Amino acid sequence: MKGNNLGELEELVLLMVASLSEEAYAVAVREELEKSASRVVNISAVHSSLYRLEDKGFLTSEFGGATSKRGGKKKRLFKVTSAGYAILKEAKETKEQIWSNIPQLSFLTI
Q: Can you give the pTM of this predicted structure?
């Protein structure tokens, strides 16, 4: 596994793949980013993030079946690895700890 730091977009992409489960491919990830996170992202940025996350060992991918809708082209489907789930958990815990250290917000629950 290469590096374990996540950029903001990488973290969001990893979360989207986890939430999409069996239908996690680039276009679906992009659509989910727009819907769930109100982020408009270029499809090339999504592809780059997916491949970086795969290089880091946080995702795996395989080709799904070809469809006539896609002109016979196969979708590359992504799945979160156990290392991917671990880094998401670590990122969540780190953010929660930092938020809890902000005095003005200590009365809020996360």
A: 0.84
